[in-house]
Amino acid sequence: MEEKLTLFKNRKRFGIEKNIDIIFKNTALVLSSFVAIILLGIILVVFFQSFESFSRYGLKFLVTSEWNPVKDEYGAFTAIYGTLVTSFLSLLITIPLGVGTAIFITEDFVPKVFREIIGSFVELLAAIPSVVLGLWAIFVMEPSFRAFFVFLHNFFGWIPLFSTEPTGRNSFLAILILVVMLLPIVTSISRDSLNQVPKKLRNAAYGIGASRWKTIFSVILPAALSGIMAGVLLALGRAMGETMAVTMIIGNSNAFSWSLLSPGYTISSMLANQFGEADGSQVSSLFYAAFVLMILSLVVNIFAQWLVKKFSLKY
Amino acid sequence: MNSLYYQKRLSRNIGDKFFTSLSVICALIAILPLIFLVTYILIKGGSQITPELFTLEPNPPGDDLDAGGINPALIGTLIITTIASIIAIPVGVGGGIYLAEYSKGGVFSRFIRFGVNVLAGVPSIIAGVFIYALVVSTKILFGSMYSGLAGGMALSILMLPTVIKTTDEGLKLVPNELRYASLGVGASMYTTILKVTLPSAFRSIATGVVLGIARAAGETAPLIFTALFSYYYITGFGDLFYEMGSLAVLIYNFALEPYDAQNKLAWAASFILVLSILSVNIFSRVLAAFTEKTKRV
Question: pTM of the predicted model, to two decimals?
Answer without folding.
Answer: 0.90
